[in-house]
From TrEMBL:
Protein's pathway: Carbohydrate metabolism; hexose metabolism; Carbohydrate metabolism; galactose metabolism
Organism: Mortierella polycephala
Protein name: NAD(P)-binding domain-containing protein
Positions of the UniProt region annotated as Disordered: 360-385, 398-438
Cofactor: NAD(+)
């Protein structure tokens, strides 16, 4: 089937080697976008907006202060191999940062096939195109869930045993193995960095971008913030009989801005390796603060930030939860020159600022209208006076499997896409989606 071409957007020329970011409109992606734009990078964002918002990209561009940075957005699902290939035909990418994927542990146990299809097949489509178009520099958004059940409370190093305990974690682990095999199959060609996150918290200090989960949040602090704003009645504490100082689980929390800096450090690491005519092959790094806070400490800190005690109730433990999970981030400090800098109170203050300024998340914003084949190509400048967003149609077939971003809960009606590796091309009845230049 012949491809119907995306319209070329002149803001980014192929010889400028932009960075491809999948899932760039999500929580971690949008914060990383701001920092890369501040460095003057040229970015191409691919996201299907299943559980993210284009508003985040408008705001990210407005927050960046370097006029040399630029951003183009394509609404494309990684499961649509043909549409994704059309993006690759427009640019010569220097590096890819791969955020896009489903990330809700509980949901993954209910629809495991959807998680394997979306996360693993989407990544296979992406990596095959990176290989085909000779971009062998990849930063993968992995997770500390690959470590499974830690054998002790000691900080976890990258060489610790792996063994994920749920379908979500296994998709991350399988993708890591796929990427190792890919690098090993072409020795001396690939630079792949696996960033294993612990628990991102907070928001941009402006309060303009932050975490906007669909439905009930899966993570502690977004839930705490929604209780604080009055959207939910009470915080559930899952067990208070762990062998910790207050009986509640201890986790390593990292400010989202520190985590975004970790991605910038990874990009710079790959660039330095290329300049030295060497390769990394495939290397994992932990991105965590290296210290833990209990659930009760997190609730107490947020209560202090809000100015009053937040209601909570203790209920039973969740299956698979462990007492303490803390990162050993020393390898990232040594080889990436990165370490977490922001404090727990920074996390709480920035999260609260985001929550109070955006009580309904991005849905309360004056977001651009949904595109349609009949709508004119009109700019949207309602979000920020300096941003013109032309409505340029691009071809995509909406996939029945939704690719979410950064841990957002996805509809439980998700079904698997029809092809295991190469997804079908656009059908004659395909609708129109966006290619937007910021």
């Amino acid at each position: 089937m012949a491809h119907r071409k995306l319209h070329h957007c002149p803001q980014i020329k192929q010889d400028q080697d932009p960075i491809l970011i999948t899932g760039g409109a999500g929580f971690i992606g949008s914060h990383t976008v701001v920092q890369l734009l501040n460095l003057g990078k040229k970015l191409v964002i691919v996201d299907n907006l299943c559980n993210s918002s284009e508003v985040a990209l408008h705001r990210a561009k407005a927050l960046a202060h370097n006029p040399h940075g630029s951003l183009i957005f394509h609404k494309v699902d990684l499961l649509d191999g043909d549409a994704l290939q059309q993006v690759f035909e427009l640019y010569t990418f220097s590096t890819c940062i791969h955020f896009a994927g489903l990330k809700a542990v509980g949901e993954s146990t209910l629809i495991p096939l959807g998680y394997y299809q979306t996360n693993v097949t989407g990544t296979l489509n992406l990596v095959q195109l990176l290989q085909k178009y000779n971009c062998r520099n990849l930063i993968f958004s992995s997770s500390a869930t690959v470590y499974g059940l830690p054998p002790s409370d000691a900080p976890i190093k990258e060489d610790a045993p792996t063994g994920a305990m749920n379908p979500y974690g296994r998709t991350k682990l399988y993708i890591e193995e796929i990427l190792r095999d890919t690098a090993a199959s072409e020795p001396g060609k690939w630079n792949i960095i696996l960033l294993r996150y612990f628990n991102p918290v907070g928001a941009h200090e402006s309060g303009r971008i932050g975490e906007d989960p669909n439905g009930a949040p899966n993570n502690l602090m977004p839930y705490v913030a929604q209780v604080a704003i009055g959207s939910r009645p009470v915080i559930n504490v899952f067990g208070n009989d762990y062998p910790t100082k207050d009986g509640t689980g201890v986790r390593d929390y990292i400010h989202i801005e520190d985590l975004a800096r970790g991605h910038v450090a990874a990009v710079e690491k790959i660039q330095a390796v290329i300049r030295s005519n060497k390769t990394l092959d495939c290397v994992p790094y932990n991105l965590g603060a290296g210290r833990g806070y209990s659930v009760m400490e997190m609730i107490q800190s947020m209560s202090e930030t809000v100015g009053h005690a937040l209601p909570y109730r203790v209920i039973g433990r969740r299956s698979g939860d462990v007492a303490t999970v803390i990162a050993d981030p020393s390898l990232a400090a040594k080889e990436l020159g990165w370490k977490a800098e922001k404090s727990l109170m920074d996390m709480c203050r920035d999260l609260w600022r985001w929550q109070t300024l955006n009580p309904e998340g991005y849905s309360g914003s004056n977001s651009p209208p949904s595109p349609s084949m009949a709508s004119p190509l009109t700019p949207s400048s309602t979000l920020h006076p300096d941003i013109a967003l032309p409505r340029i149609p691009a071809t995509i077939i909406p996939s029945t499997t939704k690719t979410a971003v950064d841990g957002r809960t996805t509809p439980s009606s998700m079904v698997t896409a029809p092809s295991p590796v190469t997804s079908p091309g656009p059908a004659p009845t395909a609708k129109r989606a966006l290619q937007s230049a910021f």
